[in-house]
From TrEMBL:
<dbReference type="Pfam" id="PF13233">
    <property type="entry name" value="Complex1_LYR_2"/>
</dbReference>
<dbReference type="InterPro" id="IPR039196">
    <property type="entry name" value="Fmc1"/>
</dbReference>
<protein>
    <submittedName>
        <fullName>Uncharacterized protein</fullName>
    </submittedName>
</protein>
Amino acid sequence: MGLPKHVPGLYRTVLREVKKTSMTPKTPNKDIVASFRTLFERYNGPKESHAALDRDAQVAAIFLRSQREHKVLLERYNPLIDLSAEDRIKATARRVGLDMPVTVKSES
């Protein structure tokens, strides 16, 4: 009893999402890819488990896509997210038309 014909397509879908969500372009985390590959290769059970594999693979692809879209939206609508606290305060002040006063650092 082999895997259904659509399983390689599911694997490619999940792998594509892993590649898109990786920190460095076109080089996804090899451990994550290996884990997904192992899961898909080991799935060779009864038809009921094929339905579980289909569902789990689709859920994983949707989760990865949602995470990627969430990150894009967060960067678009909250551009101060990656700044330090001091830089965030300065940027917020500039947004309302103010400049932060220059602080003099004392030399001890």
